[in-house]
Specification:
Elements (H helix, E strand, L loop, with lengths): L5 E5 L6 H9 L4 E5 L15 E5 L11 H15 L3 E3 L2 H7 L2 H10 L7 E4 L2 H8 L6 E5 L9 E3 L2 H9 L11 E5 L7 E8 L2 E10 L10 H5 L18 E5 L4 H13 L4 E8 L6 E7 L8 H5 L3 H16 L12
Parallel strand pairs: 1-2, 1-3, 3-4
Antiparallel strand pairs: 5-8, 6-7, 6-8, 9-10, 9-12, 10-11, 12-13
Length: 329
């Protein structure tokens, strides 16, 4: 039996089937580790020399919220032990905090929507007084648009407050944010790999759906009778997705964001504010799922490039100058 060279640490049961398929196709030995039921010994390391973190910030919406904060502790432990963690503790901290994402964007001078970070519904009401409606309230730890609610007036927000309907998520923190009208009703997602531009897509929406995940499983989850949905057929699902070639200044901005967030791979989303015509960045996604129907939409299979990247990292860790500490037994 071949020795396992990489661990794939994941929570969602379906999102990573294409990754596993490509690893199997290349006969690259890997260990699949479920995040929802796990333990570690602080005195030891474990598993292969490369650890690929695919933990999801939306796990609490599938009953696996126990793994979110646990994963933070695990990743820091592995890094201290010298394990090469792909999308490690820094990127996961950014992935699991919209507040930290906006703070990072601000530190880079990147434009983003006006926002207040609050830790109680009462503060949400107070913060909303400084906004022009409509606004959205979103959990700090989210994913796929989960828990985001639009409010068109102060009265609507007060009613939600009175009925205890505001979702502050697993860390009891939320964002009050101005609602931005998207130019042409679309958002742009730029994917990176190894800190560099991989591809761009435009997602057109027929309504104000906050679940803009381009992976086919994100749509399947809400349609139990469906067995397969390809987003190349987006209009039937309320989405239309097409390849997007971003301007050089957008690529440069996204790569700066990826470097600051220490993303080995991940997506960055922005929209064009219909009022000003300026790009506003609003999401840094370390667990970005590649677009379904990729070959038809962007012209290549990004999972092949991802596994190319993983193989390079594995090879680096097998050398004296590799990422794994030589002190680790």
């Amino acid at each position: 039996m071949q020795q396992k060279q990489i661990a794939i640490y994941y929570e969602h049961p379906d999102w990573f089937r294409p990754l596993f398929t490509e690893l199997d196709r290349r006969d690259l030995p890997y260990e699949a580790i479920g995040a929802a039921n796990h333990r570690f010994d602080p005195n030891k390391t474990f598993g292969p020399p490369v650890f690929f973190n695919r933990m999801s910030a939306s796990a609490s919406y599938r009953g696996n919220g126990n793994a979110i904060f646990y994963t933070r502790y695990l990743l820091e432990h592995l890094e201290r032990k010298g394990v090469r963690v792909i999308n490690g503790a820094r990127s996961f901290a950014i992935e699991t905090s919209k507040a930290l994402q906006l703070s990072l964007l601000d530190s880079l001078g990147v434009l983003h929507p006006k926002t207040a970070v609050v830790n109680s519904p009462a503060q949400a009401l107070l913060a909303a007084e400084e906004f022009v409606f409509p606004i959205v309230v979103k959990p700090n730890i989210g994913g796929r648009g989960s828990g985001i609610v639009r409010f068109d007036s102060t009265d609507e927000l007060k009613q939600a407050f009175a009925e205890n309907l505001l979702d502050f998520g697993p860390d009891s923190t939320a964002l009050v944010q101005e609602f931005i009208t998207k130019r042409d009703g679309c958002i742009h997602r730029i994917e990176t790999l190894g800190g560099k531009f991989l591809y761009g897509i435009t997602i057109h929406t027929s309504n104000e759906n906050f679940n803009l995940c381009p992976a086919e499983v994100c749509l399947i989850e809400n349609q139990p009778a469906a067995t397969e949905i390809c987003l190349a057929d987006g209009p039937a699902n309320g989405l239309r997705i097409e390849k997007f070639d971003p301007p050089r200044e957008i690529i440069d901005t996204v790569e700066r964001i990826a470097a600051a967030a220490e993303l080995d791979l991940g997506g960055v989303e922005y929209l064009i504010d219909d009022r000003s015509g300026k790009p506003l960045f609003y999401d840094i996604n370390a667990l970005s799922n590649f677009v379904a129907g990729a070959v038809d939409i962007i012209g290549f299979d990004p999972h092949e490039k991802l596994v190319d990247f993983l193989e390079k990292e594995i090879n680096k860790c097998g050398t004296v100058t590799g990422f794994r500490s030589l002190a680790v037994g």
